[in-house]
């Protein structure tokens, strides 16, 4: 991994301290002597240094709210590796497979402090947005702050509360004399521990997870929870963060700045890993930009697109993204089933919807861009689904990360990711409602005040939320 000049400067400051604690203020004063910078800048570079250290990342320790220390002369080469390996093995079960965090460096730096300060932090977002990878990175960053470790539990294939409790116990109590058979025995076993528990993929068991989390956090003061889900747990003390898409530049500026675009960089990294090489022609780059601009910065979609392009050819795929992308099946054997195709990814979300939510979601697919609640009612309401029901469904779909909710002044507007709209439109066609919904939409356009162009979108035009993609993670 390549480190920048500032990262090397920070490393030099820590080395010269010879194992002593160096305050954050001192590091910033020495590395940025003539500049005023935010503490987040230091966090970003420290995260990069730790990733560069790889398995030796524990050599840098964080003293909460004070500073950093680089371990100096504490282990001999003969015994140091074994000691570190044993300590690390006992203190976490995080995946050791390297994950590509392109475009998430700032997010890791921003959220690292919140993990230690907040008892329950939930990462929310549509399927494939990168919640799990971000949670793993935050888990590694948090190791120094939790003396009993960081433990991750995947709930992807869990179907009931009993199985969930057993998986949590297996992860957190390995080697312990405790054998948690119930929620009460689990909380008793964890009561004296200081640990971070990461629950990954909670959307299919939201109510059960909420009940478990509430019990653990109330009875175990040293436990913190980091949750990834497409829907919130709806606990009063839950801190929610919406994981945004990767930066995806609009066509006008892509030609000049595409190499700095995280979505393009992720596509190229995956494409070259599969095909070999490291150079792309200008024509090829144009095709990559076209593909990435149509995928709204969703990492899973970008990686599947790169894998598809590596097989069928970049030119052919770029000209037919929408038809191919939902059905392409990844050959990567370590991916969970719901991430091997985008259709499977959407089906996972669809299983959490009631009949009303499914009806409203598919009917809203006729909107090519943002709409408000009154417009949604004009399209989705009928004799069986009144206005209040549609408005309620809008709120639930936004809560489950299938609609994006934006404040436009005093007005709330909704929109879909491109891929969600494609999936919903397929459902609309399967139900034979395309013609009816299109007639409603055309009538609404004619009645709109102002030019009808407000409701149109050109295929190559950037989506309305593109301008906000570069921001730090937003509270939900």
TrEMBL record:
Stretches assigned to the OmpR/PhoB-type domain: 1-72
Coiled-coil annotated spans: none
Keyword annotations of the record: DNA-binding
Region forming the signal peptide: none
Family annotation (Pfam families): HTH_77, Trans_reg_C
Renumbered residue ranges of the record's region Disordered: 72-95
Ranges annotated as DNA-binding: 1-72
Cross-referenced Gene3D superfamilies: P-loop containing nucleotide triphosphate hydrolases, Winged helix-like DNA-binding domain superfamily/Winged helix DNA-binding domain
UniProt-recorded name of the protein: ATPase
Record-linked InterPro entries: HTH_77, OmpR/PhoB-type_DNA-bd, P-loop_NTPase, Sig_transdc_resp-reg_C-effctor, WH-like_DNA-bd_sf
């Amino acid at each position: 991994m390549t480190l920048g000049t500032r990262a090397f400067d920070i490393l030099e400051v820590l080395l010269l301290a010879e194992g002593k604690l160096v305050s954050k203020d001192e590091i910033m004063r020495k590395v940025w002597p003539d500049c005023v910078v935010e503490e987040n800048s230091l966090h970003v570079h420290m995260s990069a240094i730790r990733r560069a250290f790889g398995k030796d990342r524990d050599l840098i320790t964080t003293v909460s709210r004070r500073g950093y220390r680089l371990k100096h002369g504490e282990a001999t080469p003969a015994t140091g590796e074994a000691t570190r390996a044993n300590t690390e093995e006992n203190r976490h079960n995080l995946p050791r497979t390297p994950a590509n965090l392109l475009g998430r460096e700032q997010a890791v730096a921003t959220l690292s402090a919140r993990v230690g300060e907040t008892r329950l932090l939930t990462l929310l977002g549509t399927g494939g947005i990168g919640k799990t990878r971000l949670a793993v990175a935050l888990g590694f960053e948090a190791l120094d702050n939790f003396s009993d470790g960081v433990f991750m539990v995947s709930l992807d294939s869990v179907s009931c509360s009993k199985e969930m409790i057993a998986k949590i116990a297996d992860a957190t109590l390995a080697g312990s004399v405790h054998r948690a058979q119930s929620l009460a025995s689990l909380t008793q076993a964890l009561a004296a521990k200081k640990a971070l528990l990461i629950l990954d993929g909670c959307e299919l068991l939201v109510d059960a997870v909420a009940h478990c989390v509430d019990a653990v956090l109330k009875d175990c003061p040293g436990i913190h929870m980091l949750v990834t889900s497409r829907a919130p747990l709806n606990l009063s003390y839950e801190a929610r963060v919406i994981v945004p898409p990767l930066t995806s530049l609009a066509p006008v500026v892509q030609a000049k700045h595409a190499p700095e675009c995280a979505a393009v960089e992720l596509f190229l990294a995956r494409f070259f890993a599969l095909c070999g090489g490291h150079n792309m022609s200008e024509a090829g780059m144009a095709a990559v930009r076209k593909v990435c601009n149509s995928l709204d910065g969703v990492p899973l979609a970008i990686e599947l697109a790169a894998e598809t392009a590596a097989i069928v050819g970049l030119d052919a795929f770029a000209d037919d993204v929408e038809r191919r992308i939902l059905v392409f099946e990844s050959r990567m054997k370590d991916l969970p089933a719901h991430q091997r195709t985008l259709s499977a990814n959407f089906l996972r979300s669809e299983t959490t919807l009631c009949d009303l939510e499914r009806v409203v979601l598919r009917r809203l697919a006729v909107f090519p861009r943002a709409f408000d609640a009154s417009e949604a009612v004009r399209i989705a309401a009928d004799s069986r689904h009144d206005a209040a029901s549609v408005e309620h469904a809008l709120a639930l779909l936004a809560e489950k990360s299938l609609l994006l909710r934006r404040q436009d002044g005093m007005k709330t507007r909704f929109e879909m990711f491109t891929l969600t709209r494609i999936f919903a439109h397929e459902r609309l066609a399967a139900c034979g409602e395309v013609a009816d919904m299109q007639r409603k939409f055309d009538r609404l356009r004619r009645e709109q005040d102002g030019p009808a162009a407000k409701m149109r979108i050109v295929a190559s035009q950037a989506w309305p939320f593109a301008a906000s993609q570069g921001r730090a993670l937003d509270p939900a």
